[in-house]
Design a protein that fits this description.
Layout: H1 2-20, H2 23-44, H3 61-91, H4 94-99, H5 105-135, H6 143-167, H7 177-191, H8 203-209, H9 213-225, H10 241-262
Helix pairs in contact: 1-5, 2-3, 2-5, 3-5, 3-6, 3-7, 3-9, 5-6, 6-9, 6-10, 9-10
Length: 270
């Protein structure tokens, strides 16, 4: 067990070096939520603070979009980044070579998850810094809210990473990976309250979104960064953090099973 963890830590360092050397990965998974926050704030915040409904306080547009973009960052770092990256490694023979070494799939998974945890923390810190310093967003001041943020962050990014490992088995080649993975992530972001406010979506579309983890990550993040009065806009008029935890825990288990069941150093049909 110690050897597995040690190899996983070594893979984490290796994965981080590769991640920060890739300009396109840095932009499309690391900086993309920050770019979108700046874009939405500039386009929709020109007329001042935003009030989505009577009885709820008006807020800077950046603060209303921040929870969804925080959740999207978890999806991009874990799901999209890993699904494409692993498909490319399988195509160029990197995984086949690793399969001939003492590295176990578990250590390989630990390296990938370690990488997305580190980059996810850095991304979240940068996104929060930009929101506060550039767009005047007020962050929570109580420890309870940050405790909620911590468990949603860890559950969300780990679930996203495991699902990314599982989905990496779908593309037949590394060249087709982006075409397979990016549309999935894009559709989920549109229906899960990232680019379109979740409370404005029709109920049937909300129900579809709630079948997937991103909607629950975004809901949990809204409970952290939006005032309590905004809970009335949610289904049932409450944040429902117990359901958030349950949904993410279920998807974490699904991702763990699927990633282990579908992962191969080489494709079976290769």
């Amino acid at each position: 067990m110690n050897n597995v963890a040690t190899l996983g830590l070594w893979r984490t360092r290796y994965e981080l070096r590769g991640y920060f050397r890739s300009a396109d990965t840095l932009f499309f998974t690391f900086l993309f939520p920050i770019v979108m926050l700046a874009l939405f704030s500039s386009v929709f915040g020109a007329d001042g603070d935003f009030q989505p409904a009577p009885g709820v306080p008006a807020l800077p547009v950046a603060q209303v979009y921040l929870p969804g973009l925080m959740a999207a960052g978890l999806l991009l770092s874990g799901f999209q980044n890993l699904a494409i990256d692993i498909a490319l490694e399988r195509t160029d023979g990197s995984l086949k070579r690793l399969g001939g070494t003492p590295l176990s799939p578990v250590s390989y998974f630990l390296g990938k998850i370690g990488q997305v945890l580190v980059t996810g923390v850095l991304q979240a810190a940068l996104l929060l810094g930009v929101a506060v310093l550039v767009f005047g967003v007020e962050l929570p001041t109580d420890a309870g809210a940050w405790g909620t943020f911590a468990w949603i962050f860890v559950l969300g990014i780990t679930t996203s990473a495991l699902l990314g490992i599982a989905v990496s088995a779908l593309p037949r080649t590394g060249r087709s990976a982006a075409a397979v993975v990016v549309p999935i992530g894009l559709v989920l972001q549109f229906i899960s309250g990232v680019y379109l406010f979740f409370w404005l979506l029709p109920e049937w579309l909300q129900n579809i979104a709630n079948l997937f983890p991103l909607a629950w990550m975004a809901k949990g993040m809204r409970s952290v960064f939006l005032p309590e009065e905004y809970a009335v806009l949610e289904s049932g008029g409450v944040w429902g953090l117990g359901w958030v935890a349950l949904a993410l825990a279920v998807w974490l288990a699904v991702g763990l099973v699927l990633s282990r069941a579908t992962f191969r150093w080489i494709r079976r049909d290769a």
